[in-house]
Amino acid sequence: QEPFVADEYIERLAWRTPGGGSRGGEAFDPKRLLEEFVNHIQELQVMDERIQRKVEKLEQQCQKEAKEFAKKVQELQKSNQVAFQHFQELDEHISYVATKVCHLGDQLEGVNTPRQRAVEAQKLMKYFNEFLDGELKSDVFTNSEKIKEAADIIQKLHLIAQELPFDRFSEVKSKIASKYHDLECQLIQEFTSAQRRGEISRMREVAAVLLHFKGYSHCVDVYIKQCQEGAFLRNDVFEDAAILCQRVNKQVGEIFSNPETVLAKLIQNIFEVKLQSYVKDQLEEHRKSDAEQYLKNLYDLYTRTTNLSSKLMEFNLGTDKQTFLSKLIKAIFISYLENYIEVEIGYLKSRSAMILQRYYDSKNHQKRSIGTGGIQDLKERLRQRTNLPLGPSIDTHGETFLSQDVVVNLLQETKQAFERCHRLSDPSDLPKNAFRIFSMLVEFLCTEHIDYALETGLAGIPSSDSKNANLYFLDVVHQANTIFHLFDKQFNDHLMPLISSSPKLSECLQKKKDIIEQMEVKLDMGIDRTLNCMIGQMKHILAAEQKKTDFKPEDENNVLIQYTNACVKVCGYVRKQVEKIRNSMDGKNVDTVLMELGVRFHRLIYEHLQQYSYSCMGGMLAICDVAEYRKCAKDFKIALVLQLFDTLHALCNLLVVAPDNLKQVCSGEQLANLDKNILHSFVQLRVDYRSARLARHFS
User: Fold this and answer.
1) Tens digits of per-residue pLDDT, 638-650?
2) Cis (ω within 30 of 0) for the bond into 259?
3) pTM of the full structure
4) Of 133-142, 197-206, 312-321, 582-591, which gets the smallest average pLDDT?
5) Whole-angstrom Cα distance, residue 467 to residue 480?
């Protein structure tokens, strides 16, 4: 039995044998165990022979049955082949019979068709004869329930009557036409009643009959008219139209054989009657009186109409539904879109001017005329070349005449104008119209607001020799920088998508570049003059606070201060200006302006120190002052400025160093590369320079 394990089998056999279960024990009997194993092996051999004989017998039986099965399969194949031959013969016979039947059917049809036509013609002649006699006796004309059959007959008689000569059959033609018209009216009335009752199947039957009548289009018109009854009760005509079309789209296929034509005619009726009337009422009210509301309504109505058109694109309206719907929209709005951009530009111009004027009025400021032409251009060129203020300085009282609220309002108006332009402009006119809107933005934001503020700011910068001057131009720079970032963002976000693939792109980029360069020139000019004023203020502080006795005290042994009062005030002033510059600018502009201020600051201190004579203790005080100036220069975080003050500090060491060490100090790392005249000029500032010993050591 499976699973069979030989080792376990031997173990079980040994345990069952008396004397074979205890190895090495007293009861263990190997002879007994050997005898048991030999007997068991013999039994297994006998069993194996018996099983082998049984297997051979089964194999012989299997071979015999296989031969019998093969013989039976051969017999079945033969019978199957015979059956297949019979089936082929039967199929050929059926095909032959079918051919005969089809031929017979064709013959019968050939005989029956003329007969049916003759019967039909006989019936029509009978009905025609009734019209000729002037008395309609047939049940089909008198029974109202057989209106469908009557309609079929009268439609055929009407076609026949049109072929008859008028002079001989004028009366009967008139009667047939009259009956034709009456039945047509009855069918349309029946269709109308069925529609009111909501009987779709009856509507389908009547529509199928009317399909061959001239009044079929009138039936469609009636259906369209009744569909709209009670459909436009809410204020949202566009949503009502969409719901109506969805409902009709589900129904029209069950009634008419040409549902796409009927649905298209319904949509055309909605656009030409309902929507056109609604749009006209909404726009004409504000067209001449309120340009802002007119443009908002035009944008809103056009957007909602195109959205409705997108929903209707889901329906089957024929082959070119896109063109069909576009023509309907164009027919509604063409009179408003033709001059849209002129209205837009006119409104934007007046609105922008009003925003600016309202701002200046709130500041009680009468806007000065910057002016153009020969004299102004000459002044501008002179100012750019000389950087001198031309004309009287204006006290702005700290007002920058720049307002982020004004800028946000102007940008918001322009953003809405760009959105309207994108929606309402013809694709071919879109870049041109967008450029015109951009030009308005440049005119009012950049020229009338930012540029005017820069001009006013420039005029408000005091001369460099003014005392206690208030410097507000850096506030103008800070606000102008912020505003221009907003201007640039709108340029990229709202204008670029409208002109990116047109020749107007290069024109807009050039216009933007020109206005940037124009403003940068004025900003550079104003910053330069502001730096001059800062240096002027420092000069006034030094002139007022620095005394000659600071560096040549009367009592050399009783100097109690670490640095002079002039140094303290100058450093305090400089630190305030550095912080103001950092707050007013960003990026590399901060480093550029601070480096320029630092260089001028260094030149001022250098020239200032050249004006005094220095005793030994005065020289030490000068070194302390320069050390404080150098500490102040670290706030600039400009390597060049710090290097200049390091060199100046080293030069000041020449004021106190012992005569014997002068040459060694001059050849030091910081002073070795300086011109000898510069070193000499500092040595000459020493009180003891005239002594022969000092002059000899330095020569």
Assistant:
1) 999 999 999 999 8
2) no
3) 0.69
4) 133-142
5) 27
